[in-house]
Every structure is written in structure tokens, then in C-alpha cells.
Amino acid sequence: SDYYFDEPKYDEETARFKSLFYEAPLRAKVKLVNHRNKSTKEQEVYLGDFPIMTNRGTFIINGIERVVVSQLIRSAGIFFAADAFKARKLFGAKIIPNRGAWLEFGTDPDGTVNVKIDRHRKTPVTNLLRIFGLEKNEEIIKTFSDVDKGPLKFIEATLKKDAAKSVPASYTEIYKRLRPGDLATPENAKSLIDAMFQRIDRYNLSRVGRFKFNQRLGIKNKESQVLDLQDLILVVKEIIKLNNSPLAEPDDIDHLGNRRIRAVGELLQNRLYVGFARLRRIIQDRMSTLDLETLTATQLINARPLVAIIKEFFASSQLSQFMDQVNPLSELEHKRRLSAMGPGGLTRERAGFEVRDVHISYYGRICPIETPEGQNIGLISHLANYARLNEYGFLETPYLKVKNGKVTQKVIWLNALDEEKYKIAQGSTELDSNKRIIKDNVEVRFGGKPETYPKEQVELIDSAPNQMVGVAASLVPFLEHDDANRALMGSNMQRQAVPSIKPQAPLVSTGIEEKAAFDSGRLLIAESDGEVLEVDGRSIVVEEAGKKKRNYLIHKFRRSNYYTCISQRPLVKKGQKIKKGDVLADCASTEAGVLALGQNLLVAFISWEGANFEDAIILSERVRKDDLFTSIYIEDFYCDIRDTKLGPEVTTPDIPNVPEDKLKNLDEEGIIRIGAEVNAGDILVGKISPKGEVELTSEEKLLRAVFGEKAADVRDASLVLPHGKSGRVVGIKIFSRDRGDKLEPGVIKKIQIDIAQLRKVRAGDKLAGRHGNKGVISQVRPAEDMPYLEDGTPVDIILNPLGIASRMNLGQVFETHLGMAAHKLGYRAVTPVFVGADEYQIKDELKKAGLPETGKITLYDGRTGQPFSQPITVGYIYMMKLNHLVEDKIHMRSTGPYSLITQQPLGGKAQFGGQRFGEMEVWALEGYGAAHCLQEMLTIKSDDVFGRGAAFESIIRGERIKNPSIPSAFNVLVNELKALALGVEAVKKENLKHETQNPKQTDL
């Protein structure tokens, strides 16, 4: 072909390891034609390196996995809108091209039809018709005579308003609106306006725009991507028809028939259009300066502007996002995300309620549940389970054909506009064993409204009950019993579940856990049939047909974008026969190929001494002992060794003024050994950098002469583990200029230390179920203190029963009861959304398990052994530990850094700051009259420099703290007043001399 990609420069692993792009060079055949001597030269040119998509649908940019989110925007084409005027509507239209000037048609109350070109002043539409070829007034009136029959004659009213009577005058009139103040002649007006509408590079409806135009106006088989006279006539006719029809309604711009998806290819294509325009300018400039006889294509083409635009798009576009990699579900859902924001889209400040609201056309295309809770609500959404894009970027969803009340296997994919023409039954409609609809009258959707029709008239049926919702919402069992707000929280929080080291598949599931895990790209899947030859922690070797061996590498302890651990565990044994598509290895959040985001815990819904007040959670020590919520976090720390003006920095274990025990884990290069246990303040890389020479005293010269110069002229610049961090060193990477690694200017060597930390569950961590039932652990109690069942089994978790009634998420109660039955009977319950187990089925299962139908059991207090006065709801619930761990949030400080100007402690954990005692807190202490506390807060605990130093010394010596002095805030105020030319001086009270008779005026 005329263009192709070479093999990628590096494989994915190398790109990730060395923080590079996973990219491949693009080469194209170019023909250079010299029109003077009719010679042609063909040559292959290099057009830059393009990032390549991995088989998981991501891009590796600077060693980091990123996802390009699809954009949901208003489609190019034509839309009819209406303005209310008194008791009637005045219709207009907007023609939105893919590239070029917008045309906005409108109707005035007097019947004039006008047009605005690119938001400039309006002009009568007859001017536009004239320049497109409808020249005479009689022709114009005759063309519209078949529709302009109402009491108000729109075309005649427009011609009356039209000052121009000829084509040149029409050009001039439009030019005056486009370029007010410029000299308008028919010639320059014609050249500007013709180029504006007839050149394909200046005006382009695009294939989508033409498709929408044809669809709305009933045009057949027209493919031209520029406007012509026939198009404009049809637009004006439609406006007149709508104005004359009292029941006419404007187009709904929020309908998914009028909004389309721009996926990564199209987004990149739009940026490349800009890059090629720059490339064209460069080529034209070079053609005018280089010798035409010896010219070659490679001399003309410089790929830099193209590469710069692509790199900028992937590195900084609003739609190129740092991949959400907390667990496999968050990864999958990030790739299925749709954003209405980004270039050419909406901004969250300007987006109104209508755009954000769930639309009827979302059914089966966009999940109505999953969206953020903050300011982006409704602007960011997710694809529904079975939605797909058609060739124009519109969302389609599948339906099964129904013939005479019987469901066939024929699948029809429909977009949002076509769907409204059919009578469609919902997925939970009851069918008999022959796939016939049981009820005679069926609830259907028709024309976007719910109706009831005889079963013989039903044309289509949903292909599955969970067709309406997205992946995360389909993972919530009994979703139909949850309030929508809580279902939204439940769906969103599953994406924040931290992988634990012992994953457990849910006892109560919906049946799509396997599919979600499989499609996430995190599992190791067999690519063909074969037999397992070898298995260890690093790889699986499979012998395929023809004695061919395939080696599958297993990822161990890799850091994800969110510092969680990506680790795979083999599932197959040596000698095992496998089929194509079998799961060979689990990942961090799966068990035997089933998505496992949390743990099954024995729950009791009971208020317990106020310890579970306000959604707090009481957890058993057993959960911590058995490592049920234990997770691994991996963080990396970097150290750059630079070449400074005074000489290069050096890594060494010989650091001045550092005790021996701090250096015991460093090797001869000064780098910490793998496997070392480190805490905050420990040295990871010993580094010294040269210090500027200063004039020495004679004593220092003598000391130098005796002890050598080493200690004096270097300073300690070691990489130290920051406060609040600890763990074990699991990886060391060294990048050096000598080995050919690409480093920033001035850097000789870069060292990366990976530290893994095992985090057990503790009080302050956030736990959540799948129904939006979230809470913070208030206590981790010994198992012997927890309430226990009759057989002595203590419960694992205590939740507050008050968290159910007002929240209306009854799904958790259904899950608890069914979980108890499933645990007793030893199976995994599968209850799909919208067609899950009902109350009677759950009661039957509880009976089979030998449990009371109510699901309530007598519990005994673990501390006293006495039974509680009422039976209590007990069962198994699936809980997840979310990525909001107290260890990352808890923070304390005694002394630390201070701001230079105000001398107050800095703010925030990252700066090792203090807690701000603000204005409102001061009011509170003032209200209690706590004068000494207040003085302490505002002086020695804040910005009284001398006072806090003295207080620190007094504490060390065990003496009483002395009185505070003047805080720095006062000095700042004095300096501010000095800047206003006010000479303010602080005078001590005892030095004050009363110069006036009235001492009240001057007494401080």
C-alpha cells in the first residue's frame, strides 16, 4: 500500500520499563511532480513515530498506560429549533458542518425568514438563495408556492425586507454582514463567499452531516459534502411547513439520534488535520527556497510538526486520561467511558440540566445509572452492556425479532431514531418453554412512550434483561430493589475496590463476573489448544499442535497507575489439557477467572453501643488475622544524579555526619539492597553533591590539613523515604546515560526504588457493599467480643440497620438472606439484574438450608454470653475495601516547615504541614472565653518565632513555658501599612509617655 507502519521500536515491557512511548514509525510513498518539465519522483518518506494501541485498548505514553476516552458530541447535520413568541412558535434551523461556517435560519414575528452566517448579523434568506442560483424574485416565489400557503406569506415578507434585488447586490449585502467596515465590492464579496461554501477544505458537512441532512429532509442517494441550492430550498420549505403547522415540535438535540460518538481514531484524525496543514505550509516555504531541479520529497517533508501534535494530544488532551487501574473493573469501565467535554464539546460550567439528564433514547445505549456524583454528573457516562457504534458513530443496540408472539433468534441492531418506529417489549417479559410470550397484552415501548399492545402486534424484544445498564451496574445483584442514587454509588464504588491478596468470588453474583474479568485484559488467556509442559511463578509453557511451544509470561508485583499491585497466579497444572480461551492465570482481583473485588463476610444488622453510629462499621479481628482485606501497595521513588556547575553528584555509602546504622543496608554504590525493610527517614540512595567553596578560617584550614578535605566540600543530598511511608524494597532500576538511556538534560544517572507495603485493614479504612452501603471502620474488635450464632460462629462485621430504611437500598437485605442460604448449601448463587431471585425463591432456599424463613436468627452477645432480646438479620454480604485508606490520609506534626513571609506552618500532608486553626475556630474558643488556649494557638503554636523556640526548649528541659512574644502576623501587618506610607511603630506599654491630658486616647 501507499503507507504502512514499521514494527514498534520497543515492545510494551521495554517501553514501560524505560518510561518511553510504545510507538511505531509511519512511512508513506510520496510522488513529487514537477509540472514545468513533467518529471515525477517517487520516494518513501518517514512521517514520524505514532503511538500504537496495545491489545488491551490502551496507549503507553512515557511508560504510563493511558486511555483515550470517546467523546459524545452533537452530530453535524441539520436541526430545527423553535422560539416561543406570544401564543405560537417561530421555527428556525441550524446547519452544523464538520468544518466551516454555521448557518442559522430564523423566523421573525413579521414572517421574515432570515439567516446568520457564523454568528454574524442576520440577513434575509433570499440573499443566500440568490447567490446559490435562484436569481429572480418570481422564481423564488414560484419555488415556494407549494408550501407558503398560510395566512402569513413568509417569502413575500422576506422579499419586502430584502434590500438587494440582484445577485451582485446579494453578495455585497452578505459581505457587509461578514466584514463590517471593509470596502464591499461584488468581486471581493463573491471570491470570499464562494470560497466559504464551495471549497471542500473550507466547508465540509462530512459523511455524517450529509447522512443526517438526508435523513431529516427525506433526500435520497445524495453524497455531496457541500451545500447546494436544492438543500437550501428544502431547508426553507421545512421551516415554512413547521411555522404553518400548529402541532409542530422542534428537534430534540439531546436525543441520541442527534448525538454521536467520536472515538480515538476520529479524535486523532482531527488533530492530524491541523498537523498536515502545518506540514503543507512548511513544504510550500521550502519549495520557494530550494533548487527545483535537484529537489527530493525527503528535503521538503519535515515530520516534526506532525509528531509534536500527536505527542501533545496523547500527553495533554482532556480526553487522553491516566488510566484508572485500581482493579480490572475500573480498567474495563474507563475504556467504555463517554465524555461530553473536551475540544468541541461542553464545559461543566455551561452545561445545563437538559444535557445532563437521562434521556429516553439512552435505553440500551448509555447506562442510566453510572455517572459521577460531582460537577461532572451526566456529562461523563458509560456504554450500556450491548451498545456498539455504527459507521457514522451513532450508538446502536440489539433486539430480537418477534413473529406472532414468538421470539425468534434473529438479531436487529437499531439506532435511537429507527428504534422509535417499532413496538418493543422489555427483556423481563415472561416467555414459555417455546419462547412464546405468555401474557395476551404486553407492555411495549413505541415512539419513545410506554404503551400496551396485544402480543401479536409486538415486533421486537430486548435481547437481554441487563441490556439497559452498563457493566458495573450489572454486577449489582438485586439492582431492581435499590434506589437509583444508591445504585449509582454502588456502581461507582466497585471501581475503587482495592485488590486483596486472597480474593473471594461473591457468593451472590449476577453471572457476568466471568465476562467482565475476561474482557478486562488482566487475565492470562490461552491463545490456542494444547498441553501444559511447565508452570512456575514466572511463566507457563504450553505445547500446541505440531510440537510448537508457547511461553506465557506471568506478571508479578507490578505497580499499577494507582499504586495497587498487579500480580498473576497460575491456575493450571503440569500435564493439564487446555482449550483456546481458557484462563491460565488469575489476576489480583479474580478467583478462578471470576471477578472478585471483595470478601464474603458474615454480617449482623444490629446497633452496637453506638459504635456503628452514622454508618460506622465494626469488624472482627478474624478478618484482619486471616488477611481477608490485606492488600499490597507499591510506590516508586526517584533519585536523579546531576552534573552540577561545581562538579558531578556521586552515589556513595560514605555520607558525612550520618550514623553507621543508617547506612547498613546500602551497597558499595550507595543504593539500598532489595529486600531491606525501610521506614520514614531511612536513606534509599546515598548521594553527595559538591558544595561551593567559602573562605576558611585558620582553625578550619588546620583541621582540613589534619583530617583531609573530604568532609568539608560536599553536602548530603541523599534520597530519603518521606514521612508516613514504610515498606520493603522490591525493585531497583538504574538508568544511565552511558548505557544509552534517554534522560533529561543535566542528568547523568537516574535511580528508581520500588517499595511494597502490606496493608492490613484497620480502623479508619472505608468499606462498601455493592448497593451504595458505604462506611468507615470504627473498631476492629476481638472475635470473642463479637455476637455469635447458636453454633458459636462469631459474626465478621456489624452494620447499622438504620442505614437501610431511609436509603431504600433493599438489595443488601436480599443479598444477605440469599448469601446465608448459598453458604449453608455450598453453592454460588447467580441472580441476574431485573430477572433475579424473588422473595419466595429466597424463602425456599432458606428453608432448604434449615434456616428460618424470616432470615432472622437468635444472636448471643460475645461479651456476656446472653442472647439478644430480638432475633437479628444475619447472613453473608459482599464487602469491598475501597482505595481511601486511613494510612494515606492520617497525618501529624510537631515541628516542621514554616512559610517564609507569615512564619506560620505550611498546610497539607504533602508539605508536612499543620492544621489551620481558622477564623471560625477562633470564634468558638472566644465563645467559651478560653483566653489562654486562644493565646497559645495564635502565638507559640503558630507564628511567634521566638516564643515557639523558647517553648520547645522549655519542653525539652521540663520547665514551665514562658510568656509568648509578638507574633509575626503583627510584623506582616506593620509592613503592609508601611507599604501604604503609614509609619507604624510598636511601643512597649511601660515606655509610653502620656503627652496629652486624656490618657484614654493613647493607652494601648
UniProtKB/TrEMBL annotation:
Keyword set includes Nucleotidyltransferase: yes
A single MF term (Gene Ontology): DNA binding
GO biological process: DNA-templated transcription
All residue ranges annotated as the DNA-directed RNA polymerase subunit 2 hybrid-binding domain in the record: 526-911
PROSITE patterns, per database record: RNA_POL_BETA
The protein's enzyme class: transferase
Catalysed reactions, semicolon-separated: RNA(n) + a ribonucleoside 5'-triphosphate = RNA(n+1) + diphosphate
Ranges of residues in domain RNA polymerase Rpb2: 89-262, 321-388, 913-988
CDD domains referenced in this protein's UniProt entry, alphabetically: RNA_pol_B_RPB2
Protein family membership: Belongs to the RNA polymerase beta chain family.
Function according to Swiss-Prot or TrEMBL: DNA-dependent RNA polymerase catalyzes the transcription of DNA into RNA using the four ribonucleoside triphosphates as substrates.
Name of this chain's protein: DNA-directed RNA polymerase subunit beta
Organism: Candidatus Wolfebacteria bacterium CG18_big_fil_WC_8_21_14_2_50_39_7
Phylogenetic lineage: Bacteria, Candidatus Wolfeibacteriota
